[in-house]
Specification:
The protein is built from 3 helices and 3 strands, in the order H-E-E-H-H-E. It has 108 residues and is mainly α. The chain has one domain. It has a 3-stranded antiparallel beta sheet. Helix 2 runs antiparallel to helix 3. It is elongated and about 60 Å long. The C terminus is likely disordered. It comes from Polaribacter filamentus. InterPro entries: CxxC_20_CxxC.
Length: 108
Amino acid sequence: MDNCKKCNKNFEFWNVYKSYWKGKWTVKCSNCGTEHDHKIMNKLLLGAVIFVPVIIYTLISFNYQPNNILIAVIMYTVIYIFAGFVVSLITTRLFKFKLIENETKNDI
């Protein structure tokens, strides 16, 4: 997990994880309150959260075909959600952040 660029305190995992799933692209340091923005690699890791469960879903669906369509839909949905959750937990640890520059305009 990355740390604050101002006070060097590590970001709290659950703070980053919640902001990720809420769709917020800024994370606030719990120590000094400085806001940080996600680097582009974090946004690319979102693709892994979507892509890896699709691969797992495809591999399982080729190897196992239940007779009842309702059971198949429920089973594959649960597998897809669980795989997405696990992958998102793993990728959150890889996130890097950059300090948001506070632009102040001086009126003359």
